[in-house]
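#struct-help
A.M.: can someone run this one for me? Single chain, 190 residues.
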Amino acid sequence: MSTSLALTDLQWSALLPCLLPRAPQGRRLAEHRQRMEALFHIATTGAPWHTLPPHYGRADTVSRYFRRLTHAGLWQKLLHALTEAGPTHPLRQLEGPILKACRRAHRILGLPFLVLIRKLNLRRALPGPPWLLPNPLLSETLSRVKIAPPPPGEYGHKTRHARLLASLKRLHRDAAGRRRIPRSVRLAWA
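D.P.: on it. Structure tokens below:
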């Protein structure tokens, strides 16, 4: 898989407002565009960082750049920009690579990032099928549900109550997601 993604001038100008103008140390980045192309290359191929082709630069430099951009909130900005962009906007042409890069960023950003992805309804940015991932929105809703015990002496209500409790237990379990998503499922989802 040696797919090379070269950003057009229009795509690059659409990305620029979301990017950091300078490196965290304060110096200007000469190869800013090249690093973004490298990030999108790694995201779209799914390859490990060490396999980055040499024309993109050093793999450890690019992976460090990815982590810095992730901590600076780039992927959240890009997701918001995607939801606001029209169908012909240049960011729409980069939607696939952006969403795939978000799958990598979730490892750093954690559960709040998954919540944002669900709220923006960009499920292709999730690192796996939604039904296998935690759903904090559902678990918050379920935690507020209070169930009163059945009235004493009414046998039919007890069985309905038991079924309701069993259903709520299943919903709570589903809201928590799976501990581990099999690699085959993750690869099929990508």
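A.M.: thanks! The longest helix spans residues 155-176.
D.P.: also worth noting: Residues 21 and 28 are 7 Å apart (CA to CA).
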